[in-house]
């Protein structure tokens, strides 16, 4: 399955109040290997970027002013992700923004373009309940070098998420691994030959220690030790 690791940067937190996408970064995985194929675009959101957002991703109004509008990159973006399985951290956020951009151009939604969406935030919460599961925390957990991540950036974050996703899902292909199995000896008649069973009897010291422990349990439970009751029943 072709997978696309995707991230976006936006002018704010809610597309329903007019916030827009200003950066898209995608990298491709095939057979759990990065192929080197990527899609990256800075986008003019046709609105001012608030200072709070600039502090998060470092994309200023001056930098973004001459960049293409979403309509100009939409076809290339859709072709890159078409038919793939998307891997996104906090997928509801990015998919909501991308669906809004596509809807403004009367294009189909992400679920119509792609085969599935995997949310690594949901995966991380199931694997690490009660812990921080942002991208920095997961990089630390899985030994992914994120020292170059001074601010959020869609392409860099997609590359980091690809490594985190591979680490999180390591071992899921174990059914493809052949393990050495011990040889089984069968007689000519097809009946398996079992070696004789070895019965190990408890030593006197072990029996004495067992009796001592049962005595303590019987005392603490005020005569309700199940082992003692079972022994008495068998002796009767």
Explain this structure to me?
Helix 7 packs across helix 8. The protein has a 5-stranded mixed beta sheet with strand order 3-2-1-4-5. A hairpin with a 2-residue loop joins strand 2 and strand 3. About 8% of the residues have low confidence. Helices cover 42% and strands 15% of the residues. It is elongated. The chain folds into 2 domains: 170 residues, 2-Layer Sandwich (Nucleotidyltransferase, domain 5); 32 residues. It has 236 residues and is of the alpha/beta class.
End-to-end distance? 67 Å
**The CATH homologous superfamily of the largest domain:** Ribonuclease H-like superfamily/Ribonuclease H
What is the CATH fold-level name of the largest domain?
Nucleotidyltransferase, domain 5
Tally the beta strands: 5
What are the SSEs and their pairings?
Layout: E1 3-10, E2 21-30, E3 33-42, H1 51-57, H2 61-64, H3 70-81, E4 85-88, H4 91-104, H5 110-113, E5 116-119, H6 120-127, H7 135-142, H8 154-168, H9 204-220, H10 226-235
Parallel strand pairs: 1-4, 4-5
Antiparallel strand pairs: 1-2, 2-3
């Amino acid at each position: 399955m072709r997978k696309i690791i995707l991230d976006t940067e936006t002018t704010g937190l809610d597309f329903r109040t007019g916030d827009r996408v200003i950066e898209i970064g995608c990298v491709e995985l095939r057979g759990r290997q990065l192929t080197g194929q990527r899609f990256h675009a800075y986008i003019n959101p046709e609105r001012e970027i608030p200072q709070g957002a600039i502090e998060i991703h470092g994309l200023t109004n001056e930098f973004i002013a001459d960049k293409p509008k979403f309509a100009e990159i939409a076809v290339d973006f859709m072709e890159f992700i078409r038919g793939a399985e998307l891997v996104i951290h906090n997928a509801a956020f990015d998919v909501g923004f991308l669906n809004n951009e596509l809807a403004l151009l009367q294009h189909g939604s992400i679920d119509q373009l792609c085969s599935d969406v995997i949310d690594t935030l949901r995966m991380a919460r199931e694997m690490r309940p009660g812990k921080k599961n942002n991208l920095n925390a997961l990089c630390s957990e899985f030994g992914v070098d994120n020292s170059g991540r001074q601010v959020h950036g869609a392409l860099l974050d997609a590359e980091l998420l690809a490594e985190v996703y591979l680490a999180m899902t390591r071992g899921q292909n174990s059914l493809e691994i052949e393990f050495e199995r011990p040889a089984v000896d069968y007689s000519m008649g097809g009946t398996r030959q079992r070696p004789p069973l070895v019965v190990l009897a408890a030593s006197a010291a072990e029996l004495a220690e067992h009796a001592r422990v049962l005595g303590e349990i019987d005392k603490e439970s005020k005569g309700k030790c199940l082992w003692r009751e079972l022994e008495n029943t068998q002796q009767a």
